[in-house]
Structure formats: structure tokens, C-alpha cells
Amino acid sequence: MDNTRVTRRARIALAIAAGTVLTAVAVQIPASATATTAAPHRAAVASAAAHSSLSAGAADDTSYDDTYYKDAEGKTGQALKDSLHRIISSTQTGKLTYSQVWDALKETDQDPDNSENVILLYTGRSQSKNSNGGNPDDWNREHVWAKSHGDFGTDTGPGTDIHHLRPEDVSVNSIRGNKDFDNGGTKVDEAPGNSTDDDSFEPRDAVKGDVARMILYMAVRYDGGDGFPDLEPNDNVDNGSQPHIGRLSVLKQWSQEDPPDTFEKHRNQVIFDKYQHNRNPFIDHPEWVGEIW
Length: 293
What we know:
Elements (H helix, E strand, L loop, with lengths): L2 H25 L15 H11 L23 H14 L7 H11 L1 E2 L2 E6 L6 E3 L10 E5 L21 E5 H7 L3 E2 L4 E2 L7 E2 L3 E3 L5 H14 L10 E2 L10 E2 L2 H10 L4 H14 L5 H4 L3 H5 L1
Parallel strand pairs: 6-9, 10-11
Antiparallel strand pairs: 1-2, 2-3, 4-5, 7-8, 8-9
Helix pairs in contact: 6-7
């Protein structure tokens, strides 16, 4: 046998072995963050870490164009909306109960820097997965499309669709309530970067696009079929129990100013791979917001 080949193979074997050892050591390093509730003033730091350090698991924006979205390609306006509705409805083969949402959110919104925690939507706080419940400093299940807007409750369907359900501090969730989304208001002390007034809520900048794309996903997914109301955004606030939420013009602006980041893309992928098996098309193709509305 050629001695050069023997030497080359030996070097490759040593490199692989060294890489394996390094990987094993890296896996054993524990997360530095604790599993306790973080103070509210750390919200911005936790959110920045969560949205920048996650580097794997998110699909490329166009990786599903030739398969999942093939029937939507080349369409605009109502034709695009109708096509996307058929796609995301027919592929949603996994549907959760409201109690199952707890465990799903512990995975979809896991802090990439601490696997024992989740990131709360509005506060940006990294908080123990096990501190979910109904106490003021617990986290609960926030319906981004408020369930009273269309009165769909928490039965399996829009009330349990985790594309718009997110973990949030109980008291901050209560402050948001069922308000529409708009700019302005007074600052929310417990959730820096958020504002609210009598009829609207403005989330922090880092998740404004996330909120917009969740709302628009719901408008495409639920169009009056399946026994559920036809959800549609409008340009109003104070929509009450009507199946509408606004302001559409502001949501479009938020989606453009805050494009999908790695955390949001990863979340979309986890929902697709493990839970509902459908996707939020506006995360994969944010330009479709302007094509439809």
C-alpha cells in the first residue's frame, strides 16, 4: 500500500477523533443562565441574546418554494391568499388541545441560551419553563389574535393554534388584554419598550414584526371554514367581539421594519416539524404581506 495514503488516512482519523472529543466536551458544558425568573430590567438583554445566538434549526426563506409553496408561486392578491389558505389548512395535520399548548410553548419558545427557560413575548424576559400558571409573576398563554375577537375560545382550532400563542407574563398579558395593535400610548412599566392606551397595545420593537406576521397568518388560516369565524384584519381599533383586529396599516409597517429573525424562523420550523406540520408563510416570505394587503 502507498505510504502516502497511509499517512493521509492516519491524519484524517486523528482529526476526526479530536473533533469528536471536542464535541463531547462542549456538550457537557452547562448553560450559564439560571432557571429562575429574571428581573424585568434584564428584558432587553435576554431578548437580544435570544434573537442573536440561535444559529441552527431555521429553514432558509426559499427552501420550501418548490414543495410546500409550489401552488402559491406566481400568484398575488386574493389568488395568493386563497392558495396559501389551502396550503396551510390542508397541511395542519397536528392540532393541539389547550392543555397541550403548555408543553408545546416550552419547546417553540425555548431560550436558545438556556434550555430550562422560555422567552416571554412582550417583556423579552427569559423565565423558567416551570413557572407557568396564574400567579402575577408566572407566564401564561397569550393569544396574539385575542380570542374574544371572533369569540373562538380555547377549543381546538384558532384558540389552540400555536402559530399565534406565545408565553407571556401573567400581568403583562392582562394589560394587553384583548386590545388591538397600534402605535402610541403610555409606557408599560413591567415590560419596557411596550406601550398601551384604552384601545390598543404597542409591543417592543424586537417583536413588532412577529406580532404582525402572527396576526396575518390567522387571517389566512381561518376564513370562515372549519366551523370557525372568518378572521380579517382591518384598519380600526376597539373592534370588540367582531372577528377583526387592527390596525392593518400599522401591522404592515411593523412587518416591514422588523423582518423575521433567527428565533422566529426557528419557531416556525419547530411547529412545522413537530406539532402542527404547517407553516406561517409570512415568516418564509414576508414580501407576501404586501402582495395580499
